[in-house]
Specification:
Blueprint lengths: L4 E10 L2 E8 L4 H13 L10 H21 L10 H20 L7 H4 L11 E4 L5 E7 L7 H14 L1 H9 L5 H8 L4 E8 L4 H9 L2 H6 L4 E8 L1
Parallel strand pairs: 2-6, 4-5, 5-6
Antiparallel strand pairs: 1-2, 3-4
């Protein structure tokens, strides 16, 4: 996965707010897409369940989704990130960055563990931090644009409507009891993952900090912003 992207910037914007900026492999985008597909197709997490019926159930859900993505969205040979594949690139690489750099919990993408094969309504990915806070992640891709407003706006809408609590029934098997209880009590965090242009990092951070959705979400236990330069 190291060949798929590089970490260009990391900073803490507040005690509870992290900012990452990563850049995909621009010289050979097919490498990035192949690595994203490989990450999606990795199913060793299923073996963590000790009941055969749980393994079989998650295997069926995940393989159906992977088959669809491989056939219709990413086959590993494309030479550019498209509208269809962009959100997967943003989701997978952002989650990978957070897991690697913060040592947070690695959880499969929502589409691999929830019932609907593709296009799940709700958050795109999840993690859990060191303080047993469940993090709900939303990924947005807009070609040749900075999509932070779309990601932050969607997160705020989901938070207000209770979409995060709605998701818990589908992801309960992947998190600690403490994190689930905390989320139920309103102690939760969010991850905004989004495509970005080559805009200077200082300007990008300033735009994010001036964003009203960012300000509203900054009161939660944790907020992570991951800009993916594509």
């Amino acid at each position: 996965m190291e060949d798929a992207y590089t970490l260009e910037d990391y900073r803490q914007l507040a005690d509870n707010i992290h900012f990452f900026r990563i850049k995909i492999n621009q010289e050979n985008v097919s490498i990035t897409l192949r690595e994203v597909l490989n990450c999606l197709s990795e199913l060793s997490w299923i073996s963590k369940f000790d009941k055969p019926y749980m393994q079989n159930s998650f295997n069926k859900r995940a393989t159906d989704t992977i088959d669809y993505i491989t056939t219709n969205i990413i086959n590993g040979t494309e030479s550019e990130v498209t509208t269809d594949s962009g959100e997967y690139v943003v989701s997978v690489l952002s989650k990978k960055t957070i897991v690697d750099k913060l040592d947070y919990l690695d959880v499969p993408l929502a589409e691999l563990i929830k019932e609907k094969v593709v296009g799940n309504p709700g958050f795109d990915f999840y993690s859990e931090n060191k303080n047993n806070i469940l993090l709900f992640g939303e990924a947005k891709y807009v070609a040749k644009a900075n999509a932070f407003n779309k990601a932050l706006e969607q997160i705020e809408k989901f938070s207000i409507s209770g979409k995060d609590l709605n998701d818990i029934a589908s992801i309960v098997h992947f998190f600690s009891e403490e994190a689930l209880e905390n989320a139920n009590n309103g102690d939760k965090g969010y991850i905004a993952a989004f495509s970005s242009t080559e805009i200077e990092t200082e300007k990008l951070v300033k735009h994010i900090q001036d964003n009203e959705h960012y300000k509203n979400l900054s009161s939660h236990k944790e907020l992570i912003c991951v800009a993916v330069t594509i």
